Amino acid sequence: MPLLSDKIASQVRDVFNANLQQPVELLYFGRQQDCDYCDDNRQLLEEVTALHPTLHLITYDLDANADVARQYGIADAPATVIAARDEAQDGTASVHDYGIRLLGIPSGHEFGTLIQDLIVVSGRDSGLEPATRAFLSNLQKPIHLQVFVTPT
Amino acid sequence: MVLAHRMALESPLVTAEMVEASEFPAVAARHHVSGVPQTTINDGAGTLVGSAPESYLIAEIKKALKQ
Fold it and tell me: Is the residue at A49 inside a domain?
């Protein structure tokens, strides 16, 4: 039973076809136990990434792949890293991590966030105002932003 | 939400995570989340409640960094 209706899938595919440019890698971290939304989150990402060839999904288990989780600073599940996928001419691909994370399932309003994130990362351009870009280019210290949301 | 992610894309010094508050109540409680969206800067050095334009978030970040 798909999570996305045919209608929604078709709309999202149209948006992807019109906006996606370069490859995107989604790294999903789930866990077997004590995770109410892990199965739905993984399935949602599988359905979304199946809608366009620039989208790639790697699925990890927080416990079995603890080394990878540590590398990406993932301590909870479900979590998703939205990164650039850089494909070399010899066919190999590498992950360029911008520090973009989703903690929890991107459903409801946040489904739109997921779609927009994929478009922004695919374009490799933040689209921010010049003043914001100037400020960020002069940063001396790290900034960690956590945006708390609810699914409604 | 996407604004924080755009900033992460722009700068290698910025990381940005969306946290679904109802799935991670302990994290939300630690950051005293009362309304959403709430943006927390550097683990509580700054906080912004509600959706805000870029300039507001930047002003809040500057305050948090004491620039």
Answer: yes
